[in-house]
Amino acid sequence: MGLKALENGLIRFTNVKVPRENILWGEGKGLKLALTTLNTGRLTLPASAAGGSKAMLNVSRWWSNERVQWGAPIGKHEAVAQKVGMMAANTFAMEAISGLTVGLAEHGGYDIRLEAAIAKMYNTEHGWRIVDDTLQIRGGRGYETADSLRARGEPAIPIERAMRDFRINLIFEGSSEIMRLFIAREAVDHHFKLAFPIVAPESSFGQRVRAAAKSAPFYATWYPSRWLPRATTYGEFGSLAKHLRFAERRARKLGRSLFHAMVRFGPRLERKQMVLFRAVDIGAELFAIAAACVRAQMLAKKGNSKAVALADLFCREARVRVDALFDRFYGSNDQAIYRVAQQVLRGEHAWLEQGIVGMMDIEAEAELATEDPAEKDEPAVAR
Ligand SMILES: Cc1cc2nc3c(=O)[nH]c(=O)nc-3n(C[C@H](O)[C@H](O)[C@H](O)COP(=O)(O)OP(=O)(O)OC[C@H]3O[C@@H](n4cnc5c(N)ncnc54)[C@H](O)[C@@H]3O)c2cc1C
Question: Which of 79, 210, 247, 286 is deepest in the core (most CB within 10 A)?
Answer without folding.
Answer: 286
